[in-house]
Amino acid sequence: QGQEKLSCNPKKENGTHVVLCELGNPMKAGARITVDMELSVSGLEDMGDAVTFHLQLRSKNSPSPSNASVTVTVPVEAEAEMELRGNSLPAITVLPTSWHRVEGSKRLEDHGIKVEHVYELHNKGPGTVSGVTLSLTVPHLLGDHVLLYLLELGTEGGMNCSHHPALNPAQV
């Protein structure tokens, strides 16, 4: 009829974590109860894609007609919100109409105006992330014409980076 908070005690039993909750002492014969439990579990990074709980109702009465048990499997889902920020330096670039690329030149200015694109990937949480892959596609050709001459690619913060073979083809 009424609602009561349970007093529960965690302990280790046979190498597993056990939480014991006292439901009633003494409990009247034929009593029916409903228990809603909210569990907070930490350290799930290496648990796989699910956590299994074994729930058992034990009676101290002797002999007990049944010690009913049930297994509940709860899926584990990691949650983290990623944010990608980008910036170009300078923000706007205009080539004069009279400018033409100098074929075969090794000078950077003969290939256009240098524009640096900076991308930052941020984890906004709440969970931590690992093994993140960011694929960035940059249009470097427009038909048969060079749209952007890709000079170099760099990273910071312990990231690994692989790049397209079209990076700096004229060895500028």
TrEMBL record:
Domain of life (superkingdom): Eukaryota
Record bears the keyword Signal:
no
Residue stretches making up the Integrin alpha second immunoglobulin-like domain: 3-76
- Fetch the Pfam families from UniProt: Integrin_A_Ig_2 (PF20805), Integrin_A_Ig_3 (PF20806)
| GO molecular function ontology, one term from the record | integrin binding
A GO CC annotation recorded here is: external side of plasma membrane
Q: Which GO biological process entries does UniProt record here?
A: angiogenesis; cell adhesion mediated by integrin; cell-cell adhesion; cell-matrix adhesion; integrin-mediated signaling pathway
Domain (Integrin alpha third immunoglobulin-like): residue spans on this chain: 83-171
Subcellular location(s): the record lists: Membrane
Tell me which InterPro entries the record gives: Integrin_alpha_Ig-like_2 (IPR048285), Integrin_alpha_Ig-like_3 (IPR048286), Integrin_dom_sf (IPR032695)
Glycoprotein as UniProt keyword? yes
The way this protein sits in the membrane is described as: Single-pass type I membrane protein
Keyword annotations for this protein, in alphabetical order, are: Glycoprotein, Integrin, Membrane
Q: What is this protein called?
A: ITA2B protein
Question: Which source organism does the UniProt entry give?
Answer: Sitta europaea (Eurasian nuthatch)
Gene name, Swiss-Prot/TrEMBL: Itga2b_1
